[in-house]
Amino acid sequence: MKQVIVITGASSGFGALTARALAQAGHTVYATMRDTQGRNAPQVEQAVVYAAEHGVDLRTADMDVQSDASVATAIARVVEEQGRLDAIVHNAGHMSFGPAEAFTPEQYAQLFDINVLSTQRVNRAALPHLRRQGKGLLVWVSSSSTRGGTPPYLAPYFAAKAAMDSLAVSYASELTRWGIETTIIVPGAFTKGTNHFAHSGSPADTARAAEYDEGPYAGVPTRALEGLAALEPPDADAASVAEAIVRVVALPHGKRPFRTHVDPSQDGAEVVNGVADRVRAELLRRIGLEDLLSPRLF
Description:
By secondary structure, this protein is of the alpha/beta class. It has helices spanning 13-24, 41-54, 68-82, 105-133, 155-175, 206-214, 220-231, 239-250, 269-286, and strands at 4-7, 28-33, 58-62, 87-90, 136-141, 180-187, 259-262. The longest helix is centred in the middle third of the chain and has 29 residues, at 105-133.
């Protein structure tokens, strides 16, 4: 069934790949990004060309996920143009790399704003429409780092993704009686095919960072990145994350998996998440709220 889908952070990486893959699958897709008339104007043009060449319904919309007004305007535009909104893909995010101590509190706050608070802005704008419809889907793009192996020097990003994942889990049980389904996609550490590592932020306190570079942790950043790259199979493809999202969206409402892992490096997240998700389900059963595990079908 053709759906109207909004994707955040769709200028590049998983977001752009997912927007194209969902459009190819026959959906109406709004690839949202900030500064569509400035820095991301080339990405908008690429989407326009792709849509024309492939005959798909791929659109773009300006959305700065750090702005309540921008998010509200973008969601309102989609609903006005389409008359409905079926799914949100929470993909917007940013990475940082460096010793945890060298990042300022303000940098942590900014990263949490992009990776966590952005989802709250989008939810508050979109969920009223989905709840009135009595049906909808939230797709959260998490990370294997939330419960898998955690190499050093990625603390702000790991903490933010863990917070976002936790928020997704809490939202899931609070939306099922409205007919809204939740699925969490868990990509591994893809070191190729996205710009996460290439465009990652660095510590503002360069003097503090230098103490790590020159002290007992000298060489750790290089070893961490090289080690991650070595764990990744040669055929690892970032497009597999987009393909997983397409498959999940295509499943019947109420039959989608709560969590889907796409982790070629197998860092252990699937094992730990499996336990955590079973514990969550069991607790809901024990307190008499088992119905919150599946969306109500109207």
